Amino acid sequence: MATQVTSQSESKLNVEGGKFLTFFLGKEEYALEILKVQEIIGMMPITPVPNMPGYIRGVLNLRGKIIPVMELRLRFGLMPVEDTEETCIVVVQSGNYLMGVVVDKVSEVAEIDTKQIEEVPNLGGAMNNEYLSGIGKFETSVKLLLDVEKVLFDVPDAVLMDI
């Protein structure tokens, strides 16, 4: 039986090329659209909030705005690690919502051409890839492109706060 390969024009890819902020969680490099990034800040005090999902670290006060903070490692089912000097919070905006995302370290702003982006392969039932919108191919590496809406904003309403 032959494997069907779809061309870029036939694919159901829902992400276009452009500038992406890349960051690491462990050894894996992820990317999100730079237009969704409001700012990158160093770690600061985060106030825990009772009855939130385990991947929500709490909230922080950023210049008078209360922003929920997500531990992306826990959201992806990865083991938690201690914060380091490189650990930071990426503040992401979508519509009227802001969310802080704790990442191990920010890497760079990368230009990823649409031709470098492929659909996420079906990795079987063991791997949940619903949080990815595509995979950016580079000479010797790949960057996992996050679907910001599904990762950050597909959470219980109690977590989201209007700006």
> How many individual β-strands?
11
CA-to-CA gap between the ends? 53 Å
Strand order of the largest sheet: 8-1-2-11-10-9
Q: What would the CATH topology be?
A: OB fold (Dihydrolipoamide Acetyltransferase, E2P)
Q: From the 3D coordinates, which CATH architecture would you assign?
A: Beta Barrel
CATH hierarchy, class: Mainly Beta
- Written as H for each helix and E for each strand, in order along the chain, the element string is EEEEEHEEEEEEH
Structural class of the helix and strand makeup? Answer: mainly beta
- Biggest pleated sheet: 6 strands, mixed
Q: What's the pLDDT, averaged over the residues?
A: 83
Count of DSSP helices?
Answer: 2
Basic shape: globular
Radius of gyration: 16 Å
The helix fraction, in percent, is: under 10%
Notable features of this structure?
163 residues; 6-stranded mixed sheet; 2 helices; 42% strand; 5-stranded mixed sheet; mainly beta; OB fold (Dihydrolipoamide Acetyltransferase, E2P)
Task: Give your account of this protein's structure.
This protein has helices at 72-75, 148-152; strands at residues 18-25, 28-33, 37-42, 56-62, 65-71, 88-94, 97-103, 105-112, 117-118, 132-137, 142-146. Residues 1-11 have low confidence and may be disordered. A hairpin with a 2-residue loop joins strand 4 (56-62) and strand 5. The protein is globular, with a radius of gyration of 16 Å. It is mainly beta. 6% of the residues lie in helices and 42% in strands. It has a single domain (18-152), classed as Beta Barrel (OB fold (Dihydrolipoamide Acetyltransferase, E2P)). The strands form two sheets. The chain has a six-stranded mixed sheet. Strands 3-6-7-5-4 form a five-stranded mixed sheet. The chain contains two helices and eleven strands; from the N terminus they run βββββαββββββα.
